[in-house]
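Example S7 (structure tokens).
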């Protein structure tokens, strides 16, 4: 590159060097701003909140997926009973006569007399402990639930991206407002030095009877006015710094690295953009899919639910555990909603109405976003025109100020005329500064309107 510059003619070389310096300053400014944007995306509390909500939806999706897997539960019951219903069993009436005959025949008492029994229906001192394994075989509700949870994850991802895009816009706007305020302070400080020097000169001239007291009083008044304007500019700068650091979740009084913005943004880069990349539209498309699955969920009553379960356990009296107490129980269940007085039909109609509402909302929001984009483009064009006009006014006022300074030194103009030229020049600097950064703020608004900023 150095060899190439050396081979060029001097005027061409100077122009190329100026261009390279401007480009380098602009690149440094954008690099610093992008660094701040990345800090904000990482540390902003609102983004963190949305990331936590995203994690919550991801966990909900994992829960929905786990519903298709087997579940194992352990349960046990122990009952102690007394009283209640009984079953009377006439044991004595049935066997005592036969037992008495047998005792006579055998000449013994081997067959005792029995009492009639009253058996308690409620189990007393009885336990039942089991492991139950359940597995759904066919359940349409679980299928639609998993789909909806997955779409809710996508919805939250779009919401996170929406917050990030809005945060980028706010950070860039706050950064340009801060640059606008700091540059205004520099303009006021430079002008203050000029006025203070003018006041000193006027005082000397007055002491030597070269001018009247009016010029001295007027110069003192202008110095006081600039001090007030400078104080207001510093307050604006502090407010801009506080808000910028707030967006980055930093200490409000932290300093901000800044670079001059040497030129206008490239308007042509954003003229072909549209609103198809807006997260608002992506969320509406996801909402359409969710409502479609909600309709499917409402219709899932037409499909029977089939599941299976396996119980492995033990039940017995007096806490006995042996081969006779152990058992298994395998079951298959089927549930089919055949009649519900029209409730399912109403649910379906509600879901269809929600789908239609989201479709209508999508059309409305699309037109709204397109209108916003066109307005932002018009604002950028207007801001660029105002900046160019301010630049022209700046050159004119500077020429006027130089001419008036020369005439004042030669005694061909009064101080009021010089002061008017100074004020015009300073006002032109301030207007040019405001117009420049308003153009970049308008550019940032277009980036937000067509979602053209690349968020990593």
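Recovered sequence:
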């Amino acid at each position: 590159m150095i060899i190439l510059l050396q081979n060029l003619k001097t005027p061409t070389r100077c122009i190329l060097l100026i261009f390279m310096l401007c480009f380098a300053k602009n690149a440094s400014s954008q690099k610093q701003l992008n660094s701040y944007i990345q800090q904000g995306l990482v540390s902003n509390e609102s983004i963190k909140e949305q990331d936590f909500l995203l994690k919550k939806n991801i966990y909900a999706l994992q829960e929905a997926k786990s519903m298709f897997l087997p579940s194992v539960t352990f349960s046990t019951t122990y009952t102690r009973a007394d009283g209640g219903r009984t079953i009377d069993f006439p044991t004595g009436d049935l066997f005592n006569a036969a037992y008495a005959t047998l005792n006579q025949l055998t000449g013994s008492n081997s067959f005792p007399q029995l009492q009639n029994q009253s058996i308690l229906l409620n189990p007393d001192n009885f336990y039942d402990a089991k492991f139950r394994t359940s597995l759904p075989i066919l359940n349409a509700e679980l299928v639609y639930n998993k789909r909806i949870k997955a779409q809710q994850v996508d919805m939250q991802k779009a919401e996170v991206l929406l917050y990030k895009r809005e945060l980028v816009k706010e950070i860039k706007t706050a950064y340009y407002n801060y640059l606008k305020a700091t540059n205004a302070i520099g303009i006021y400080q430079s002008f203050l030095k000029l006025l203070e020097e003018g006041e000193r000169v006027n005082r000397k001239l007055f002491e030597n009877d070269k001018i009247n007291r009016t010029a001295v009083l007027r110069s003192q008044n202008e110095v006081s006015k600039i001090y007030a304007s400078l104080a207001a500019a510093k307050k604006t700068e502090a407010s801009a710094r506080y808000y910028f650091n707030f967006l980055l979740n930093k200490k409000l009084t932290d300093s901000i690295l800044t670079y001059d913005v040497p030129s206008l943004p490239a308007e042509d880069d954003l003229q072909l953009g549209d609103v198809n990349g807006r997260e608002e539209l992506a969320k509406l498309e996801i909402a359409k899919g969710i409502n479609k699955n909600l309709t499917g969920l409402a219709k899932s009553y037409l499909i029977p639910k089939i599941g299976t379960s396996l119980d492995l356990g033990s039940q017995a009296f007096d806490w006995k555990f042996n081969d006779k107490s152990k058992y298994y129980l395998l079951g298959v269940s089927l549930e089919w909603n055949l009649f519900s007085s029209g409730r399912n039909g109403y649910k379906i109609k509600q879901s269809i109405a929600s789908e239609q509402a989201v479709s209508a909302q999508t059309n409305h929001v699309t037109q709204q976003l397109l209108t916003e984009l066109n307005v932002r483009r018009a604002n950028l064009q207007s801001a660029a025109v105002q900046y160019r006009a301010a630049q022209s006014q700046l050159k004119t006022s500077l020429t006027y100020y130089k001419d008036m300074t020369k005439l004042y030194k030669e005694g061909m103009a009064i101080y009021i005329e010089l002061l008017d030229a100074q004020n015009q020049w300073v006002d032109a600097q301030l207007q040019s500064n405001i117009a420049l950064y308003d153009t970049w703020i308008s550019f940032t608004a277009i980036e937000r309107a067509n979602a053209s900023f690349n968020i990593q």
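Notes on this example. Residues 1-25 have pLDDT under 50 and may be disordered.
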